[in-house]
Specification:
By secondary structure, the protein is mostly beta strands. It has one helix spanning 6-27; strands at 33-35, 40-46, 49-60, 80-89, 100-105, 108-109, 111-113, 118-121, 129-132, 151-159, 169-174, 177-182. The protein has a 5-stranded mixed beta sheet, with no helix packed on it. It has a 5-stranded antiparallel beta sheet with strand order 2-3-4-10-7, with no helix packed on it. 17% of the residues are buried.
Length: 183
C-alpha cells in the first residue's frame, strides 16, 4: 500500500471540503428570469401550456381609494398598489392555471386584496340589480375564450402593511418557486 503524497492529500481534502458548498449551491432555488416593467415573459401556467405575461405598471393608490369598500376602516394606514398586467394566449386551448403574482417590499410580500362585485337592488323589476365593481382595479376576464395571439388586461390590488414602504419588485411564483421577477 502506498502512502499519499502531502500535496495530493491536501488537494483531496480541499475537494472534499468544497462538496458541501457545491451541494448547497445545487439545492438553492432559482430566482427565475428578470424583466423590466413593460416586458413580457413566457410563463408555464400548466404542464406544457405557456402564456405570455406582461407587467404593464405598478401604481400607488391612496388610502382614500379604499373608502368605498365595506369595513374600510380595517385598511387604515395601508397603501394600495395596483398591478396592471396583460396575459397573451400563445397556444389554443384551456388550462388550469398554476402560479400567480406577488408584489414584494422590503419586509416581504404585500397582501393581495380581492374585491368582489356587489349587487345593489335598483327597485326596477325590468333591471332589478346594479352590479358595482371596484373601478380603479378590475381583474381580467374571458382569457379562455380569446383566440391564440389575443390578449386580456387586468389589475390586482396589493396592500402594504401599516406604515410599510413602497414595493420593490413583482414576481410570478408557482408554489415556492419564483419564475419571473419584474423590476
Amino acid at each position: 500500500m502506498t502512502t499519499p503524497r502531502p500535496a495530493a492529500r491536501t488537494a483531496a481534502l480541499a475537494a472534499l471540503a468544497l462538496l458541501p458548498v457545491l451541494a448547497l449551491t445545487a439545492c438553492s432555488s432559482s430566482s427565475g428570469e428578470e424583466r423590466s416593467i413593460g416586458q413580457s415573459a413566457s410563463v408555464e401556467v400548466a404542464k406544457g401550456h405557456h402564456v405570455d405575461v406582461t407587467v404593464l405598471a405598478l401604481e400607488a393608490g391612496t388610502e382614500a381609494d379604499l373608502a368605498e369598500l365595506k369595513d374600510s376602516s380595517k385598511y387604515a394606514g395601508r397603501t394600495p398598489y395596483y398591478l396592471r398586467y396583460r396575459y397573451t394566449k400563445t397556444q389554443e386551448g384551456k388550462a388550469s392555471w398554476s402560479g400567480d403574482f406577488e408584489v414584494h417590499g422590503d419586509a416581504g410580500p404585500l397582501t393581495s386584496l380581492s374585491v368582489l362585485p356587489s349587487l345593489d337592488s335598483t327597485g326596477n323589476p325590468d333591471d332589478p340589480f346594479d352590479v358595482r365593481t371596484f373601478e380603479k382595479c378590475e381583474s381580467s376576464t374571458g382569457f379562455d375564450k380569446v383566440a391564440k395571439g389575443a390578449s386580456v388586461e387586468g389589475c390586482q390590488i396589493f396592500l402594504t402593511d401599516t406604515g410599510g414602504g413602497a414595493p420593490k419588485d413583482v414576481k410570478w411564483v408557482d408554489g415556492d418557486k419564483t419564475l419571473v421577477t419584474w423590476k
